[in-house]
Structure formats: structure tokens, C-alpha cells
Amino acid sequence: MTDAEAGARKAASLAGPLSSTPGIVVLCAPPGFGKSEVLTRAQGLIQNTPSASIRRFDRAQHRLAPDAAAEAILQAGADQLIIVDGLQGADRGAISEALSVRFPSQDAPRLWLSIHHLKDLALARLVADGAATIIDWRSLKLSDGELRLRLARVPPRFKRVVGDLGRAWPAACSLLSRWAQQAPPDEADWEVPAILAASGLDGYIEQEIAPVLSSEELEALIHASITETIEVDADRRGVTRSHEQQAIMRASSKIAGLIERQGSKLIVQPALRHWLTTRFEELPSHRQVESLAHAAREFEGRGDLVVAARLFRSAGREAEIERLIADRGSLLIWMTHGFPAIRELVDQAGDILLSRSPILQLMRCIVLMKTGRISEAQELFATIDADACAQTPSLERDHEVVRITLLTYGCVLQRDTDLDRFHAIVARSVDEPDWKSLLSTLACILHTQRARFDSALANLIDARVHARSADSRYNLLFLSLHEANIHLAQGDLKKARAALNDARRRWRQEFPEDRGAETVMSALAASLEYELGQLSSARASVRKSAYRMPDSEAWFDVYAAAYEPMARLIAVDHGLGPAIEALADQRRRLIAQGLPRVAALLQNLAIILAGEAWLRTGSAPPDPPGDLAPLDVAPSWQEEEAHHLARAWLRWRQGDAAAAVRGLREVSESSESRRLARSTLRYQLALAAFAAHESNPDADAELRRAIVLAADLGARQAVQHVMSPVVARAVARLGEAAPARSDLKRFISTLQSSSRAAEGSKHPLLSAREIDVLKALSEGGSDKVIGRMLDMSEHGVRFHLKSIYRKLSVHDRLAAVHRAKELSAI
Hints:
Elements: H1 3-19, E1 24-28, H2 35-46, E2 54-57, H3 59-64, H4 68-75, E3 81-85, H5 92-102, E4 110-115, H6 124-129, E5 132-136, H7 137-140, H8 144-151, H9 156-166, H10 170-182, H11 192-199, H12 201-209, H13 215-224, E6 229-231, H14 243-254, E7 259-262, E8 265-268, H15 270-281, H16 285-302, H17 305-314, H18 319-327, H19 332-337, H20 339-356, H21 358-370, H22 374-383, H23 386-390, H24 393-409, H25 420-427, H26 433-449, H27 453-469, H28 473-490, H29 493-510, H30 515-531, H31 535-543, H32 556-574, H33 576-592, H34 596-617, H35 637-653, H36 657-673, H37 677-693, H38 699-713, H39 716-720, H40 725-736, H41 742-762, H42 768-778, H43 783-790, H44 794-808, H45 813-822
Parallel strand pairs: 1-4, 1-5, 2-3, 3-4
Antiparallel strand pairs: 6-8, 7-8
């Protein structure tokens, strides 16, 4: 469809309703919205009727006789139609007076008006009385579907630039489309000003749009065009809008449709904004700098620090960025505006200012830590003069914040005394809830890792109160994540999910670009979903968390939450060997990053995976994947759980089942008293598995205790870790005993179904053709290559692959080949 055809179609869709509407119809939109074409189309619909009497006035007739349109309105009869196509050159006062005389009345003619905005004529009374029907730019703009129709004839290389610059403005789309259809391909890569010139759109704006605005309004828009959006609301203190803002508001009214309001912001049509930006670049350099600095201070006053920093940098006044940071409380920006803001401020300040500014160096440490570069952050922090920072209270406080944050992200925060100095510094800032919230958050992390959940929850409540008082929305997001982490440790999966949902909502609404927050959220989600047996969802969460580490932000709880489901899912999909190798690879990376505690946790996790595999397969146990990693001096609950379980599996492998059981009973009683339900469940399950395999007479009772706890928590997957044939038979006996609790009966039934599915997957009924596909798959090649080898279509290959995945309980090609080889199917 050509532009002319598309424009005609748009005009025709509006002409019908217009031609049948009585009284005054006003087409109100800036130039370039096709008002004249709509009027022409509507006129054509009625001019051939016998009683039609039409008089039309346009720009040329206005120039010849400025008052002719007004005279025609005054003299026209009720059966006549007056069309006033634009007001340029017309006597607007006379037309307004004629409207007030003739409307509304019984003998008034029909009148169609084309104007740029409602203030062009005195129409307020007629609009209020309902005597005038308004068709504004919203009806005249291009819809998404109409834009796609216009772009259909545009060469592919030009579609994006035409769509981005033209948007909903019909005239811009027409000019750009015609240019694109004639231009050589390399012009698609031109800069926007060159494209505007080549298409003629800059001339159209200069001749048709600029004259609609006063010189003051145009100048205000030119200066405001240095940012993509224009803030127009008065600030929170109730200060009225500046003279410049008032001019911008008047301009937005005059060319509504080219400037749209979204909340407190004005969005300028892209082509028009680029034209305004070009006019700004033509100003003398000193005026550009003044305008940039003025705009930067306005954005700073509104709290939009990122835009302010960009503008200060554009003005060549990077030193103002350091002043801005100091005025806003330096690291308070992190808690109130989020990590993307602090990273952007550091980037905009530049290396020269960074090298001599302790404030910016401390902020740089945060940036490095949040991107997983712990060693670099530690090295930079060591170069910052602590004594010099201590001479300034705010710098001393920021220095201490970074020190504690380094302990947290470096997985070294362990003891209550780690927070003593920071507590003393915060105590001096009695009226600053931001710092109190941060202190309580850090204490919450510390108590959670030590399984002091009552204290952790008290810290959490305190941190939320202060965060809300300080409007620290970023910290509120992370407090929901800390709450989810606490509930995961306590085994309350329902509350953990609710806290995660709250965090996800906050992230989507306010910080969707913060990848670090997404990583933390996804790690905790992976742990929750895996516990519940939702393996598909867990796989998706693992891809957004474990595979980003250690190149993203995390503290000890997050590493533990991400890596365990990652390793277990690899074992499910690809076997124990790939899982052990993946853990070894991650350990090497973690040690290089300066995170030996996390590496030790993964070492013990590898031993646990191997022990569980020995139990389930019943095969002669191979050597363990490394030695037992020792406990840290002040271990977290995750380290304790992994250490005690790994030690028990090693003892069982060595034939000392009694020592394994004795050790597990001790730590199980301890974890139960600390309300560490997750660890208690795993200890109980290991105890039940050992008892079942040692034919202990109390084995069924041990299993019942473990299954009841698992059912209470809803933790289905943990039971599958020890589901050997012996344990499966014990579970069956438990189910046959007809438990009194219906929920327990359902839980056992679910376990049995999962166990039968897993057992069935060991002996799948693969067809001969499926085995052929598997053999071809093991040699590599795409669906097309396999199809040629086996003389079948690509669709047929994919059909057989889906059946193979289902029968083998796998999810990809590599896993299918691995599983088939395990079963000696190929």
C-alpha cells in the first residue's frame, strides 16, 4: 500500500462520520495530521446530493479576503455547509464573532473547521454547550496497524528508522517513506539530522510547525530538547513552575500530538525532538553550556541524579557530579535510587575525577562488588586513605559502609563484632533512617547465616520501618529477598514464595534493568522451585542465577541457593559426572575471585551428590570427588548442613554406618532446636536411608518421621535424593499403612508416582526407529542431516526426538545421548 493509498484510507474512515454530523465539527491537530484530506473526502461524500450548497475557504482565499469566511458564516442558511480549512491569513477575531452570533440557533449552517489547537478561535462556550464536535489528534494519528501498512512498502533496511522517526505523525511517515523508497541502501545508516534533511522533514517542521509557536515557546523547547523527556510537574515543596516550564506547557498545548503527556513528563515526537536538538547545537557554545548546566540543576532538584550527571558531563562540569553526590549523601544514593544509578554516576564522573575523589572511589568499590569483581574491589578499597576519610564524618561513614559491604559480598561477614564500628558510626546519625535501615539489614544477613531466625526477623522488621521512613525503595526490594531466604531456611515454602513475589513485583515496577537484583531473586526462586519439585521452573531460574555467578552480585546465602539446584539439575539431566565437573569448574572460578568459603561449600556438595548416587544405584561406590572441606571458624547454616551431610556419606561409604548415624542424630537434634527445618529434613532423610539399607528394625519409623516432615514442608524433591529401590519399597509400605492424614497420603502417592516414573525411565521401551535416531544423534548433526541419514523428513526427526525425551525423562539432545548410553540402548 502506497502512502497516498494509506492516507486516503485513513481520511475515508473519518470522512463518513464527519459528513453526517450536524452543527460545528472541529478537526483539531498540529500540521501534518491530514486534516485537509479528511475535509476533502467528507466534502466529496455530500457535494453530489441535490440539496448540497457548499462554500470552502482555504489559505489562498484567506489571503485575498481575510474576513470572507466570517461573512459567509453570518450569511449562510441552515441548508448550507461552510468549510474553513485552516486559519492562516484569516481574520480570526471576525470568525470567532461570527460563531458567537450564529451558534447555536435553529437557522445556523453546518460548519467544518480545521485548526491547530482550540485556542485558535473562541470555541470554549460552544464546546461546553455541546454545539461543537471535536475530532482531535488522537483520531487523526496513525495507529500501530496503520503504521505497519505504511511500512510495508519501505525497504527492509529503512523500516526501523522510518518507524522510529515517523511514529504516529502522518506527515513525517509520508516524507520518510518516500525518501526511503528512493534512497540508496547506505543512507539508512546516516545520522538523523541528515535523514531529516534528505527527506524534507526538517523543512516541513521549520515551515509548518515552528510558525505555530511563539519565539519564547520555541526557544524553551530547543533548550529542553537536550533530554528525551521533559519534566513539567512542580516539585514536592510546592514551588510553582518556572517561566521556561510555563512556555513549554503552552507549546505542548499548541502542538498536542507532537508533544504527548505521560504522567509528569512530556514526550516529544522523535523527529521533532531531533530537529530541536539540531537547533540547540547551532547555538553559541557558551549558551549551550549554560542551558545544559541549568537543566542539570533542575533534574538534580527533582531527584533525577542520573540525568543530572549526564547533563553536567555534557556541559564539561564533571566536578559538579562530585558535589551532587556529596549533597545527596553519597552511598545513600545506592539505597534510595538503586545500583544502576550509582553505576551511572561513577561512569559519568570519568577516570580523572575518580582518581582524585575518595567519594567516587568508594562508589566504584560498590560497582565492582555488585558485578562480582570482589578482588578488584578489595584492591581499590585498600588504596583509599582511611585516616583521611575519618577526618570527614560523611566520608568516614561511607568508608565503613564499603568495608562492611566488602565483608558481605566477599562472604566474610561472620561475627557480631564485624558490625560494632559501623553501629557506633550510625549511632551518631540519629535522625537518618537510611543508615539505620542499612545497619539492620546487615544484622539480618548476619543472623540469618548463623540461623538466629528470631533475631533476623526482628532486624528485618526494624529495617523495613526505617526504609519506609527514608523512602528507600531499593532496600525494600532486597528486604523482601532476605525474608524469602529466612523462610527457605525454616522450610516455610509458602511464605518464601509470597516474599519472592513481592520482591519480583517491586523489581518489575521500579528496577527492571537491575540485573544484579534479578540474579539474587532468581537464585532464591531456583532453590524454592527445586524444593517443590518444579524442575522446569527451577531450570529457568538457574539460567538467570547460577550461570551468572560469580560475575554478579551475591552474598553467601545467594551462592548457596543458586549452586545446589544447578548441580542437582545437571545430575538429573546429564548424570553425576557432568554435575561434579560443573561444581569443580565453579570452584576454580570462585577461588580466583577470592571466595574460598563458597568453593568449600561446593566441594562438600559434590561429595553429597556422589553419596546419594551410590545409595540410589546400589553400585560399588567409586572414590569420592575430593576430600571433605573443613568447617569455617564461624560457619553459616548452609556450610554446617553441607559439611555434616558430606561427612556422613563418607563414613557410610567407608563402612562406618554407626558413626554416620550417630553424627547425623546429633546435628539433627541441634538443627531442630534452632528451627532449621530444611537441614533437619535432609539429616532425617539420610538417617532413614541408612537405616533402610542397614536393615535396621527402626527403619520404617525413621522414614515415617522424615516423610511427615517433608509433607509438612511440601519439600518433595529432597525425598527423591535418597529414593533408592530399598527406600522406595519402604515408602510403599508407609503408603499401604493408610496414614490418617489425607495430605500425608497424597504426598506419599506423589512420591510413589515420581519413583515409578524414574524407575520406568531406566528401562524405556524405545522403538527401533528411535534407537536409529539416537545413534545418528550421537554422531552429531542437525535435524536435516539426521533426516538425510535415515531417509525421513525433519518433522519426522523432531517427532521421534520428542518421544525419546519423554521416554528417557530428559530435556535436550546431549542428555538423551548420555542417558541412552547409560542404559546401553546405543
